[in-house]
């Protein structure tokens, strides 16, 4: 065990810390859950197309992808608690703006501000690693890694009931109340971070990442309307590549980059980030497809005319299965190696897409399919955080987990945008709903995403890499596998 670089922060309410940190993850889930199920309602309420309303989901992920590394870098210094409180403040203001019946533009601004909250989970993980003893930290990190995924299935029916019985905007008022409660609890319970030197904010890196992500998502979202071979779209795609490549190059040269991209050279960190990103495309593609499919009027020749509440309840099996599987994986201990778990998770997720292609004619079939998807996510998310935490020094935990969240949101945003693009392409001129074949095409794209993820996982975990433990053992093994290039500043494991 290495010598800590600073004393562990004092806990005024030690038993309350983990529940409060989990509440931050649940808040992120609530913010996410206000997107997909409400898209058809937003389109009807604000008189915009469904593809335009999809931006109510995509913009949150876009802002989250940019805000997360910024908050992670700030949170690696002595001001982590202030960063958490600031993020909660943005979520609160954004929720209030989205709750005002002031039109789609105001809703979009509110959803963008809510996206800042997507950066809270890495800070919660870093707080647990710093503030808790090893045994409790292992369990807390594993729980936090599953909270956002599990919370989706819980947040959807709750916000759906508000929207169904109290109107669309009631769900956003619920998010505002949740954010206010989380802010109060954080102020009372969460300790200060260990004293570590502050680092300058990488403003050029943040601008490059923002521009690159915005150009990438705009390319995906507007491809069908502009034309995939149009000069404007090709120019936008080229700009996305140039800006993101410039961000990577800048990060490699910078003394204090927004995200230490060099940490990705660790094989465990690399496989975690690649599987997170590509798997995220398939996961959010599936969720977006299911929520739109079941709400489609039966007059279209498919769909179930389901209410928002029923749509949300169909995602509960996803949450229950992911939580159950995550616990089972942790019980396996050192036997739950990435070489075994990651391919298994990808196979289960792939199976869920196959079920969507073959057995979406009943609500029972869709519920079973979502449970299968939850099994896959639970297996994957129980392993990937441990790979990252084991591969980086403690003082870089916030930044490294934030980068993992960035690639996750890139995957989520891409999956969300892809679902809208594919279904829009399957919509006949003058029609308001896509043909059933559009869902089949989108399902095949999701299958390809999980197949690619599985191949990546097998190649990188078995291509000469030694087996690594899952998150259940990460706190004990982190010092052994992650040598800090600056030993005098080695963080607490």
TrEMBL record:
Name-wise, this protein is MFS transporter
UniProt cross-references to InterPro entries, sorted A to Z: MFS, MFS_dom, MFS_trans_sf
Q: Which GO terms describe its cellular component?
A: plasma membrane
The topology of this chain with respect to the membrane is: Multi-pass membrane protein
* Ranges of residues in domain Major facilitator superfamily (MFS) profile: 17-466
- The principal localisation class reads membrane
Q: Where are the transmembrane segments?
A: 16-40, 52-71, 83-102, 108-128, 140-158, 170-191, 203-221, 227-249, 270-290, 302-329, 341-359, 371-394, 406-426, 438-460
Q: Where in the cell is it found?
A: Cell membrane
GO annotation, biological process: response to antibiotic
């Amino acid at each position: 065990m290495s010598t800590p670089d600073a004393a562990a922060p004092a806990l005024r309410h030690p038993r309350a810390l983990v529940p409060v940190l989990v509440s931050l993850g649940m808040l992120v889930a609530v913010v996410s859950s206000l997107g997909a199920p409400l898209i058809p309602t937003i389109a009807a309420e604000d008189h915009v197309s469904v593809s335009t309303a999809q931006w109510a989901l995509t913009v949150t992920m876009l802002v989250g992808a940019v805000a997360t590394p910024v908050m992670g870098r700030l949170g690696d210094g002595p001001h982590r608690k202030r960063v958490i409180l600031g993020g909660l403040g943005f979520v609160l203001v954004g929720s209030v703006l989205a709750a005002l019946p002031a039109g789609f533009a105001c809703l979009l601004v509110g959803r963008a501000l809510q996206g800042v909250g997507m950066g809270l989970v890495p800070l919660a993980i870093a707080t647990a690693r710093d503030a808790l003893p090893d045994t409790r930290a292992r369990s807390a990190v594993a729980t936090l890694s599953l909270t956002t995924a599990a919370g989706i299935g819980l947040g959807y029916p709750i916000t759906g009931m508000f929207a169904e019985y109290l109107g669309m905007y009631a769900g956003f008022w619920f998010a505002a109340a949740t954010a206010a409660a989380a802010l109060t609890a954080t102020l009372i319970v969460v300790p200060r971070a260990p004293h570590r030197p502050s680092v300058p904010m990488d403003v050029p890196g943040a601008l490059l990442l923002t521009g690159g992500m915005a150009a990438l998502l705009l390319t995906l979202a507007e491809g069908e309307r502009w034309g995939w071979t149009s000069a404007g779209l090709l120019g936008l795609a080229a700009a996305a590549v140039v800006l993101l490549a410039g961000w990577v190059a800048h990060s490699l040269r910078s003394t204090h980059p927004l995200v230490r991209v060099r940490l990705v050279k660790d094989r465990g960190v690399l496989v975690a980030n690649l599987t997170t990103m590509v798997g995220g495309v398939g996961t959010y593609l599936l969720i977006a497809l299911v929520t739109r499919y079941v709400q489609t009027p039966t007059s279209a020749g498919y769909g179930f005319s389901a209410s928002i509440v029923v749509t949300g309840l169909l995602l509960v099996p996803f949450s229950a299965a992911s939580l159950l599987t995550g616990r089972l994986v942790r019980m396996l201990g050192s036997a739950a190696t990435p070489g075994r778990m990651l391919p298994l998770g990808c196979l289960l997720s792939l199976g869920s897409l196959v079920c969507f292609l073959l057995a979406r004619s009943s609500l029972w079939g869709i519920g079973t399919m979502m449970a299968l998807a939850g099994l896959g996510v639970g297996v994957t998310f129980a392993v990937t955080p441990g790979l990252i935490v084991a591969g980086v020094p403690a003082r870089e935990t916030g930044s490294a987990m934030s980068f993992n969240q960035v690639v996750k949101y890139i995957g989520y945003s891409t999956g969300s945008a892809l679902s809208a693009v594919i279904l829009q392409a399957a919509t006949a001129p003058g029609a308001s709903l896509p043909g059933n074949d559009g869902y089949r095409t989108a399902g095949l794209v999701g299958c390809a995403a999980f197949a690619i993820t599985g191949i990546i996982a097998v190649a990188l975990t078995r291509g000469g890499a030694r087996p690594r433990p899952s998150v259940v053992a990460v706190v004990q093994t982190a010092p052994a596998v992650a040598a800090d290039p600056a030993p005098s500043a080695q963080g607490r494991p």
